[in-house]
Amino acid sequence: MARGDLTDAQWSRLEPLLSQGKKPGRPPMWTRRQLIDGIRRRTRTGTPWRDVPERYGPWGRVYDLFRRWQRDSTWYRKKRGSHGGRPPKFNKGDYKERHAVECGNNRLKRNRAVVMRYDKVAAATRQPCRSPP
Q1: In angstroms, rounded to a whole number, what is the distance separating the alpha carbons of residues 28 and 64?
Q2: What are phi and psi of 86, to 5 degrees?
Q3: Under a CB-based contact definition with an 8 Å cutoff, are residues 49 and 27 in contact?
Q4: What is the Cα–Cα distance from 45 to 88, expressed in whole angstroms?
Q5: Do 52 and 59 contact (CB within 8 A), yes or no?
Q6: What is the pLDDT of residues 2-50, one digit of tens each?
Q7: Are 88 and 17 in contact (CB under 8 A)?
Q8: How far apart are CA 67 and CA 114, in angstroms?
Q9: Are 56 and 35 in contact (CB under 8 A)?
Q10: pLDDT at 61 over 90
């Protein structure tokens, strides 16, 4: 197991949330765990897809799984739980902390909007440039 790969405990929590294939077919050559570890490594390091190590599977297969899940919003759903509602383990304390952070972000956005509106006033842009005294 490489640094940054899912531990057995993390995988045991994640595996039940993943959708199962609907059609029986040929068994996969690469496990989902390997592919997900490849996706996580690529997003963590920022390397090009073609540079994903071979132990995670072919880069095309890793990218394909990432894009499929991106297109059908799987990444978003997994954050919210298997049914798209609350996360599987809802923690009221964590929610309060996240809520406080979001409120702070919204205050910053409102202040930034005020500054941006001021910058767009025509008089502010027509001021002559003055050299410092």
Answers
A1: 14
A2: -65, 155
A3: no
A4: 28
A5: yes
A6: 788 889 999 988 888 777 767 777 878 888 899 999 999 998 888 899 9
A7: yes
A8: 38
A9: yes
A10: yes
Distance in angstroms (rounded) separating the CA atoms of residues 132 and 12? 65
N- to C-terminal Cα separation, the chain = 64
- Asked whether 74 and 19 are in contact (CB, 8 A), the reply is yes
Query: How confident is the model over 54-70, as a mean pLDDT?
Result: 91
Q: Which of 15, 6, 10 is nearest to 34 (CA)?
A: 6
Mean pLDDT of 108-129: 56
- Among all chains, which residue has been given the structure tokens 């954050």? 79
Q: What is the mean pLDDT of residues 66-93?
A: 68
pLDDT recorded at residue 86 = 54
At 53, give phi and psi (nearest 5°): -60, 150
- Tell me the C-alpha distance between 49 and 38, whole Å: 9
What is the amino acid identity at position 28?
Answer: P
